[in-house]
């Protein structure tokens, strides 16, 4: 395994690719805000992207630790009722799309900051501060 090839970096790379894909989907939704009959789409949840992958997984190292309680179905939901239409006779709600864009941007910024911090720590460990 290469020196900088860790599960953390692999997962971060996949998460950044996911945020890029999701922003494109949300931008397409917003661009079709006034297109009659257009139905808003969303990317599949990142947990689904990771399922079956060897990414970073939490480990219960002590019997006193609590087990996970995250419901994968709660991660990302499309429009609750696809038959609901807006004034323009489509399924795109601007406020909902903008909230998803902001959330995705926050995820992207967080992953980028973690990636930079780990690269800095590798540099320090190798005697080459970044």
Topology:
Layout: H1 7-31, H2 46-50, H3 94-125
Helix pairs in contact: 1-3
Reported for the largest beta sheet, the result is:
none
The counted number of beta strands is: 0
Strand content: under 5%
How much is the radius of gyration in Å? 19 Å
Query: How many separate structural domains?
Result: 1
Mean pLDDT value = 79
How are helices and strands ordered from N to C? HHH
Summarize it:
By secondary structure, the protein is mainly α.
Folded structure, characterized:
This protein has one domain. It is mostly helical and 130 residues long. The protein contains 3 helices and no strands.
Keywords:
130 residues
